[in-house]
UniProtKB/TrEMBL annotation, chain A:
Residues 12-140 form the PX domain. InterPro entries: AH/BAR_dom_sf, PX_dom, PX_dom_sf, PX_SNX4, SNX4, SNX4_BAR. One of its GO terms (molecular function) is phosphatidylinositol-3-phosphate binding. CDD domains: BAR_SNX4, PX_SNX4. It holds the Pfam family PX. This is SNX4 protein.
From TrEMBL, chain B:
This is SNX7 protein. The gene is Snx7. GO terms for biological process: autophagy of mitochondrion; endocytic recycling; piecemeal microautophagy of the nucleus; protein transport; reticulophagy. PROSITE patterns: PX. It comes from the Eukaryota. Residues 307-334 form a coiled coil. It comes from Eudromia elegans. Keywords: Coiled coil, Protein transport, Transport. Residues 9-20 have a biased composition (Low complexity). Gene3D superfamilies: Arfaptin homology (AH) domain/BAR domain (1.20.1270.60), Phox-like domain (3.30.1520.10).
């Protein structure tokens, strides 16, 4: 297994900055630029301080990179980008793209994307990817020169188009089914989680009101005063603690979101297979019908109805020379067709083989990552409970002194 | 003179002497010294041609000599409790008579006789009678005894004997009139302080009531969302192999959290909410008590003024004044002592209510 890029260089997306500039139609716009820093790992190990290369990229350039990878490596499950717009928002989170919390989470997401690509055995070797990290100017032109947009099959863009495929590889059908389920279940989970977060926020914050009332009440009480006052303080602490707790949970949500988008990437590979299979079947069908035509012309029997056949019956037979010419053309076409079919078959089998290898790799990664995410979620919940225990133990003590 | 006699039976419990303080504490903290045990239970619905109403069973067990028997069981309806309360207030205008649950609940109750409502009311009525039983003076009130022991027909005939509706209305009219006049000229400082305290307390307790209800509501909404959250993980685990177990684990934990939240909510609604509510009512009662005290004082003051102006009927008025002065002093003392008692109770109740909330939250987080 070749060394992945991620082992050779350290990649970070370290900063985000607001910029203004002119866009394609020469209108002013504000956007955020992200600073990508790379540093060679080897020299670090030797104790030398290696120089840091850095350049700025904006989100649209990341998108361009990903689209290039999608087209160039159709058999690979390409890592997803963090969401373009804030989704699954609960009331305190803002849906504004310029909001600093959103920008921060996006920065982390972009770094994660680069790391995923860099640690992928196939993707990391791509030149365009390497230039994305190292070459500031002229990168866009370079990408466009590869002409990848021409390779892109517009049929894949139609999300809901189905191809009537007769013999798809069963594994891909199952996988597509799985990716649909995964997408649906994760988005449902994220939606409910956002609502739960909202409610939890409410419970905690209302306790903060206790703090104020207790403090005002303690002013008129003699013996109860101290107990009330300090209990009120603990209620304030309790109410404030929810902010950090929910911020941490957002990171968990982001981890789930990554796999929500990964499901789409999985689906894309399945559809590519479907498309290839479809083309193959169409080509085979075409070949069969041509062979039939040829046979009919050669033997003079009409087994299937054709308009030409009818017209020639009605308006008289063609000359033997004409027939010979037709047969010759068809034979050439048949030969081409057979060659094409062979190569398509080969392509198809190669695709299935390499795609399936990447899918296995992806499955392992997914199981590992999701397990870790669930564990960290559980740990978060435990820590939240521990904090709760602490606050209420203190409050209980204050109350008992009232 | 009824009020004087009351004052005499009262003076041993005035807080000025340390031993009396101990006596007061003993009343609440050591139930073995109690000689009157009351329970309110078994609500039953009665349907007549004119109306439908609920009666509650009131069971009394006592070792006191003034009771003919040691056990009584009677049925009472809400109206009877209202009657008792007004009799007690009449007899002891400056003592703090515990609150009754409200007649109707404004918001959200479609049916007057829904189970939750009846149960909440039953608990409040039980508390009401027990608070009276615990009160050093009220517990010996004659009407109270009749309420606990008389059969239904005996009670209704007794009710008809007392000063009629008209005299009570007269009292109310005079009270309103005097408060309009603002008869608080010579209010001793202690009672002014009490008044200020009660105004602030009343404000704060009402806010607390709102907060506590709001917390309950938020917890309920949280619970509703959580109910949906767990099953999603179970659904997901059906599509997975490797991580299916982890997902199922998370689902079951979330369900446990749900159950813990339910317990927490129950704790709130059984403990904190009723107590805060009781003290909301108490704050209204206390304001009323303070007003009545002012009223009595106002009577005295007006007679003193009359004396100043009508020299002729000096003797008659002086005698009246004498009586009124006694009355005022009794009223003041009664209130003072009861006030202290009430505050002790309030403190105790609040302390235990909030400690209970804290404990419930601890259990919640521990689970």
């Amino acid at each position: 297994m070749e060394d992945c890029l991620s082992k050779k260089i350290e990649i970070t997306v370290s900063e985000a900055e607001k910029r203004t500039g002119r866009n394609a139609v020469n209108m002013q716009e504000t956007y955020t630029a992200y600073l990508i820093e790379t540093r060679a790992v080897e020299s670090q190990n030797e104790g030398q301080c290696s120089p840091v290369d850095s350049l700025w990229r904006r989100y649209s350039e990341f998108e361009l990179l990903r689209n290039y990878l999608l087209v160039t490596f159709p058999h690979i499950v390409v890592p997803p980008l963090p969401e373009k717009r804030a989704d699954f928002v609960w009331h305190k989170l803002s849906a504004d793209n310029m909001d600093p919390d959103f920008v921060e989470r996006r920065r982390i997401g972009l770094e994660n994307f680069l790391l995923r690509v860099a640690s992928h055995p196939v993707l990391c070797q791509d030149n365009i990817f390497y230039s994305f990290l190292t070459q500031e100017g002229g990168w866009k032109e370079m990408v466009n020169e590869t002409g990848f947009q021409l390779k892109a099959d517009s049929r894949l863009k139609a999300l809901n188009a189905t191809f009537r495929v007769k013999n798809p590889d069963k594994r891909f059908t199952e996988l597509k089914h799985y990716s649909d389920e995964l997408q649906s279940v994760i988005s449902h989970l994220l939606r409910v989680r956002a609502r739960v977060a909202d409610r939890l926020y409410g419970v905690y914050k209302v306790h903060g009101n206790y703090g104020r009332v207790f403090s005002e009440w303690s002013a008129i009480e003699k013996e109860m005063g101290d107990g009330l006052q300090s209990a009120g303080h603990h209620m304030d602490v309790y109410a404030a603690s929810i902010d950090d707790i929910l911020e941490e949970e957002e990171h968990y949500a982001d981890q789930l979101k990554e796999y929500l988008f990964y499901a789409e990437a999985l689906r894309a590979v399945c559809r590519k297979h479907e498309l290839m299979q479809y083309d193959l079947e169409m080509a085979a069908q075409d070949l069969t019908s041509k062979k039939q035509q040829c046979e009919e012309l050669a033997t003079g029997t009409v087994r299937t109805f054709s308009l030409k056949g009818m017209t020639s019956k009605l308006f008289g037979q063609e000359t033997p020379e004409q027939r010979e010419a037709k047969i010759k053309v068809l034979e050439e076409q048949i030969q081409e067709g057979e060659e094409q079919l062979k190569s398509k078959n080969l392509e198809g089998r190669d695709f299935v083989k390499s795609a399936w290898a990447d899918i296995e790799r992806f499955k392992e990664q997914k199981n590992h990552d999701l397990k870790e995410a669930l564990i960290s979620y559980a740990v978060m919940q435990i820590s939240m409970c521990k904090k709760g225990i602490q606050v209420w133990t203190n409050a209980k003590e204050c109350f008992s002194k009232m | 003179d009824a009020s004087l006699a009351e004052a005499n039976s009262f003076s041993p419990s005035m807080p000025t002497s340390p031993s009396s303080l101990i006596n007061q504490y003993k009343f609440e903290d050591e139930p073995e010294l109690r000689d009157l045990f009351i329970t309110v239970d078994d609500p039953e619905s009665h349907i007549t041609a004119i109306e439908t109403f609920i009666t509650y069973r009131v069971v009394t067990k006592t070792s006191r000599s003034e009771f003919d028997s040691s056990e009584y069981e009677v049925r009472r309806r809400y109206q009877d409790f209202l009657w008792l309360k007004s009799k007690l207030e009449e007899a002891h205008p400056t003592l703090i008579v515990p609150p009754l649950p409200e007649k109707f609940i404004m918001k959200g109750m479609v049916e007057r006789f829904n189970d939750e409502f009846i149960e909440t009311r039953r608990k409040a009525l039980h508390k009401f009678l027990n608070r009276i039983a615990d009160h050093p003076t009220l517990t010996f009130n004659e009407d109270f005894k009749i309420f606990l022991t008389a059969q239904a027909w005996e009670l209704s005939s007794h009710k008809k004997q007392g000063p009629g509706l008209l005299s009570r209305m007269g009292q109310t009219v005079r009270a309103v009139a005097s408060s309009v006049r603002g008869g608080v000229k010579n209010r001793p400082e202690m009672f002014s302080e009490m008044n200020d305290y009660m105004e602030t307390f009343s404000q704060k307790i009402n806010v607390l009531d709102k907060i506590a209800h709001r917390i309950y509501k938020e917890e309920r909404e949280y619970f509703n969302e959580m109910k949906e959250y767990g099953p999603i993980h179970t659904l997901w685990s059906a599509s997975e192999e490797d991580i299916a177990d982890s997902l199922k684990g998370v689902a079951s934990c979330i369900d446990k959290c749900c159950k813990a939240t339910e317990k927490r909510m129950a704790g709130l609604s059984e403990n904190l909410l009723p107590i805060i509510h009781e003290y909301v009512l108490y704050s209204e009662i206390l304001m009323g008590v303070l007003k009545r005290r002012d009223l009595i004082q106002g009577e005295l003051d007006s007679k003193v003024d009359a004396l100043a102006s009508k020299r002729a009927e000096k003797d008659a008025i002086t005698e009246e004044i004498g009586k009124l002065e006694d009355k005022v002093e009794c009223a003041n003392n009664a209130l003072k002592a009861d006030w202290e008692r009430w505050k002790q109770n309030m403190q105790h109740d609040m302390r235990s209510a909030f400690t209970n909330v804290a404990e419930n939250n601890l259990h919640y987080y521990e689970e």
